[in-house]
Amino acid sequence: MSRHDPELAGDRRLPLYQRLADELRREINAGRWKPGERAPSETWLAEHFEIAPGTARQAIAMLVDEGLLERFRGKGTFVRRPRFDHSLFRFFRFRDRSGENRMPEGRILHREVAPMPDHVAEALGLGADALGIAMSRLRLIGGEPVLAEEIWLPAGPFADFLEIPVGEVGPLLYPVYESACGQLVVSADEALRAEAAGPETARLLQIDAGAPVIVIDRLARGIGGAPLEWRRSRGRADQFHYTTEIR
Q: For the HTH gntR-type domain, which residue ranges apply (predicted)?
């Protein structure tokens, strides 16, 4: 942690553990703790901020419950790495013919540098006529298409991504963004809607034009909240399901 002043900020009427949790959350959101990095121990936090170990333990537990931190038995507490592809399993049943859950294969069909559509440039915080890396990608299970994706990246920060042969990218893009371009995705906003499949979507998903599809729009963000990737995924409505827990 970069602080030198151990005085906790925030409303003094709040419990100490909550003020500490707020402080640690700010450190994570500002990128001073990176995803996958080990968090300071409860003992260190207690000594640094001159608080009881139990108070530090409560603050850490709060951030674990929020999903910002995760504990590993025998190893410690770490800043959680987001698992974005798992979010698709909340909405679509990706199973092979035997009924087993499967991570879809990723196949890039097309990749080029092109002017961004206005709505994409606006979402990524770029000006009109900004250049981007445009991708068409298909997700498949057992050779059968399950998702058709349109993806845009800012051309400058992701220039090195163009040097990777499309056949070597693999099923998960975010680890490649990090290793090849130094761009780490830490959060994302998603919105769902339904529409009728257009001719191109129908061709890619091997369904009838006009058949219902579910659309997931995602804006992925880096450290500090800067937008890094715009993505639109279309999947067959007959594979869609929605569950939630209300308390």
A: 14-82
